[in-house]
Amino acid sequence: GTENPWLEAAMLAAGAKHVTTLEYRKINSHHPQVDALTYEEMRSQFLAGTLKPFDAVASFSSVEHSGLGRYGDPLNPWGDLMTVARAWCVTRPGGTLLLGVPFEEQGGHLVYNAHRIYGPDRYRHLVANYDHIWSAPLRGPMSDADWQRVFAFAKRPAPEAP
Q: How far apart are CA 152 and CA 160, in angstroms?
């Protein structure tokens, strides 16, 4: 989610009929095509079976903060992995994940409670339930624009029960 809804506006401009944003704090949206939910509201709807699956989930500069407590979320060293796994749970079969997080090829690290910078190892775990379908092109030797390079993934089907 975002308090400055640039990503939501981009999704609408790209043709989304409706956008639901998820945020730790309550946001009041007055746009007829944009709903805003807190994590607690979304959890309640999911558990009640009233949350409709999403066609796509888009996240830019958000997941890397999950579980670090900076924005009022509980401390959890796997908060980022759980956030992306939860996105898988609420996305329709064959749905899309559009993800932009800080990435460095030489390896990732934690920047106190500000954010994570992903390296190849943790990134593989982050998107373990998705198949890569597209990458934003690199603009040169790791410019600021490439630091949070955007990737698109397709949701993998759930494994069959034994």
A: 24
